[in-house]
Amino acid sequence: MGLFFVIIMWNMERKKVEKLTFIVNTLILITVFGLMGFFYMIDVPFLVYFSIPTVCIYLIGYILISTRHLDIYVWMVYIWLTLYMGITTVCLGYDFGFHLYCMSMIPVMFVSEYLSYKLGDRSLKALPVCIAVCLVYLICTGYTSYNGPVYDVDKTAAGVFWNLNSIIVFGFLIYYTNWMIKLVINSENKLKEMAQVDNLTKLYNRHYMKEILNASESGDGRYLAIADIDHFKNINDTYGHNAGDLVLKKLALILKENFKGADICRWGGEEFLILESGNIESGKKHFEAFRDALKNTDFIYEDQKITVTITAGLSVREPGHSVDKWVQSADNKLYYGKEHGRDQIVI
User: Fold this and answer.
1) Which regions of the chain carry the CATH code 3.30.70.270?
2) Long-range contact set of residues 179-187: C-beta below 8 Å, sequence gap at least 24
3) 206-346: in CATH 3.30.70.270
4) Per the residue annotation, which of 18, 211, 257, 270 is the catalytic one?
5) Is 270 known to be catalytic?
6) Do the strands 345-346 and 310-316 form a parallel or antiparallel pair, or are they unpaired?
7) What is the pLDDT of the chain when averaged over all its residues?
8) How confident is the model at residue 16 (pLDDT cuts 50, 70, 90)?
9) Picking from 152-161, 221-230, 293-302, 311-320, which range would have the lowest pLDDT averaged per residue?
């Protein structure tokens, strides 16, 4: 129960984590007082007395939280919860279900180790702790199985506690397993994005675009275009590199809006590569319309209007041509356009 705060560590700032941990620590402390009263009612004095140091543990927890020693707090809670589960199991037996919490602690500890790493705290070594928890579980349940519980108490409330503890434990297992799977999927997606997407423009990067081009075939009804921003160096020199980045990002958005369904990448620097379905004549018409639309688009940086035009070379893949020759063909046409006035589409 003392580990609920790790649920949201991943998405929260440290101060918010500390605030939530403080609240959870308070709820646990109230629970401990409630269990102390229950132990008194069923006449188990040892557990009543044992609740006193348990209260002290969570009072110390307030100090650790306020001094930002969450790693020490987690270790303290792990150790004490394991001890608490073991002792309540030995005293009351299986019927109350306190021993089940050992199972729920295992996924929580591995999640805690990962979150500890992400937060930059000292590493919580989950594996040895899990082994220790399992040993405590085996010792306590083995003792109870062989000798029976220390106290022979009225089992009226046992069913309620068993169901409640079972629900909490299964909830832990389901939640943390689901959480870890989603975390793995999210991490895989982020790694995939890093491998495929240009960080500035959010278009495909050159490496991934080469994979797309290698998977294409001649005669598949697609053309290739390489578009280059005219006088981009002048933009950087005149307005600064931040202005250049703004132009690249905005142009990337415009490309995606105008060439929906096409594969678009930042080929390098101020060059963009577009792979679109259609013949080269329809492609030129599309690019001419795009070029005209671009002239009517305002690129504003710090109240200064920047004029942006493009030159593009278009090519279809000839039979027997490699991807490199295909790209070179489009690049040659781009170069021709650059040498003959810029702001034009060459096929």
Assistant:
1) 206-346
2) 179/7, 179/111, 180/107, 180/110, 180/111, 183/10, 183/114
3) yes
4) 270
5) yes
6) parallel
7) 85
8) low
9) 152-161
